[in-house]
């Protein structure tokens, strides 16, 4: 009941912005170990980087056999940035002439594609949360149902009325258990309807008090008599009682009449106003007007535009700098492999969560246009079944073509063994995906990001992603931290391996990266966790946080790849 009561008081959706990344201000430090420290090694520089410089020492007599293509599926990018423009992918079959030269249904997709764009050049600047999208899809079917002791009720003519169960109980259960906890709209709508329940039971409580204490002024002491732990269970009654009881603390009074006037009598109106305010604010992200597709139809796939320089492009630009920034030019940080080709596929905006349709189509676009490595936005907890199938199919498609797919975790301090996030290697119920790599950030001291999600089997490895100097928008450079930077570090190292050992598949590269980490096994580290819904900290052995028990290492990966190829 506690969880249900809390849902009525607060929105439980994940309200962290999609581009959880950018720090402010550049750095005046000049040592590489203070800037693009992911290139460095502990033995030479005293930091837990990826040993990229060391890898190049080994590769100095070898030639690049392939320019690997890295698809950054996420935000926009500044393709003309001075430090990354040499590494931007160019579609060899397309010309900037306003025509669909390669006949793929997308005009002038020279450097990638914006799945959040319209034909007139407009772009979506914010997105809804997946939970709110699902609430609006299912609202008319299930939002008015309430349950108590296995029975179903609705508010009919402002009265709580028993009704038959929903026809599709499986879908209703999904709505109640999955959608409601992740939708602010669902939570506020439920709070509005609960207002009627509060008022109805409040009348019953008054009648009971009048019978027990006739002519008396009622306080919290008398009100507590309305709760009988031995009485037959009535969930809605218990919820109403709990909410009214909280009112005594909320309004700092012992007078039940005050609570009735301030809280009970206004419950419906306040709930309605709260919901309508939230609905006005987040019920539409403009997709219908700007993009114009049906986001629930995977076959409606000819949409978007080629606008890649967008308001949130700083995230993608920093990722590109880590992967392919020009090495040795004295500008910004050195990219891990400046001979990579970086493709930009925009599915994310400044806020909200990407549409799964866009991500699935972006994966297929990347594979069909020769990508060797794909980087996805953060995992998510809510994947509607039909749309989850689109993602599973796209990931299997990438697996079949030998493409490595990298996805970062969220910074939520969650144990991935206890709470499922998608995509993951077991998401389609069949054999484990072999090409999907789940990553989290680490710092230069070899410690995991304090608040990243973790899991001894579910998270593959940690990679540099804290206080990293990289390219920023408009030929500038900044220091940033975040899971997106960690995924870029992994993408860069994977691309480096692919460049020199092009016959390796995505699954093989994943295994090489897993088995060639800088081992931190046996090292005890501090980590953020969630206890009873609250942030806390605990000590873990590094191997209890991720499958590899270590941090990404380019030098050891190159050595392993070289042995594998012989």
From TrEMBL:
- What are the protein's UniProt keywords? Hydrolase, Protease, Serine protease, Signal
- Domain spans labelled Peptidase S8/S53: 66-521
Xref: SUPFAM superfamilies: Subtilisin-like
List GO molecular-function terms, semicolon-separated: serine-type endopeptidase activity
Give the GO terms filed under biological process for this record.
proteolysis
Which Pfam families does the protein's record reference? Peptidase_S8
Q: Which PANTHER family match?
A: CELL WALL-ASSOCIATED PROTEASE (PTHR43399:SF4), SUBTILISIN-RELATED (PTHR43399)
Give the UniProt family note.
Answer: Belongs to the peptidase S8 family.
User: What's the protein called, per UniProt?
Assistant: S8 family serine peptidase
Question: Which taxonomic lineage is given here?
Answer: Bacteria, Pseudomonadati, Bacteroidota, Bacteroidia, Bacteroidales
